[in-house]
Amino acid sequence: MGLLQKIKEHDFIKSVAVLVTGTILAQLFSFLISPLLTRIYTPEEMGDLNLYLRIVSFLSVLATARFELSLPLPKNDQHSYLLYRLSIRIAIYTLLGVSLVSVFYFIAIGINLKLFLFVVMTILSTAFLVLVNLGTNWSIRKKEYRKISISKMLNSGFSNILRWLFGVLGMGSFGLILASLIGSFLSSLTFIRQWFKLDKQHLSFRSAKKTRALASAYREFPTINLPHALVDLGKDLLLAFLMIYFFSKEVFAWYSHSLLILQIPISIIGLSISQVFFSRCAELVNEGQSTVSLLRKTVMSLFLLSILPFTVLFFFGTPLFAFVFGKNWSNAGYYSEIMSIWFLLNFLNSVVSTLPTVLRRQKEFFYLGIISAFIQLTGFGVLPIFLGANETTFPTILWIMSITQSVFFVFVLLAMFRFARLGIKN
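RE: above sequence
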């Protein structure tokens, strides 16, 4: 039997193949154009983009109270639709609240055009990302993985081409952010049509009483998963401010670019496998079966896939970055060498991190997230005071954090297997 035939006959592999194909094309294009962008934009300008993306990610998680992650879980589509509608309503109220706070802020201090445009683009990007996240999770439920791939390719293709064009025109940080906004809008179009169709189909099923009951049934998402996500994303946002404050925007840009490359395995295959893994785990739990075997196979496969690229980065990160992205980015390569083992283990954990959601063990996972955030914020917020805050001491601090986080992620992976053996929490 040929490989293509095996893929066609195996649901899990087929689903992963569809998602991975779209994701690889999207990420490959981003990677291929990245050497052009790093030669057009300065590290400081790329740092502005990374800071903006972290703010948008934080707000998009806050906007839906994480109810979007519950969409694949209900046994019938009507209940999932009500959660979908609830998520959109929460997002509208949240973004209106952010807009109102922004208006009061500008009334108090006066309008700064640059800051005003930044706030407007941030709110719009957050709205589009919310639509993408909701549409993605509904598509996971319906196994419409092709839509997810199309959305990713639209975002990557248009945002990166526009970044290059705006860079040639000398638009700087504003061009980078505007290109990201347009890319987010175009990728959300894939799911906007889906929402209107879904809303029309289930028009007669709207029920405030059932919505409240579902919100209560899945209260772990706003009460546990949301704080967990906010801790993680808030940590990333605070780390950005700490690095800029203690070191420089250049150091933050090198660190962020290093993270971007280290997270390529997650972006290319990890996220796709994670989405299918989430769907398959939900099916197993609904059927009363164990997830241990699926977890073991997934982790082993991921390790075999990732060991080679992370090993190459560990030994040759600095010269590779200098050659591919330009001499201005060789420090980012050195940071990648330091963090390679950390992110190999992070890759394994990230893909299977949806398991606690399915098993209703989000509280335990939340505590682990708090510990991780505390370690990182302590390292990057306290160590510079004792070791010094300059570009020379930053690698030393990074080594300490990399070793600490590697040990921590081994512990998290062992905890994940324990959750799988214990099964769903009543």
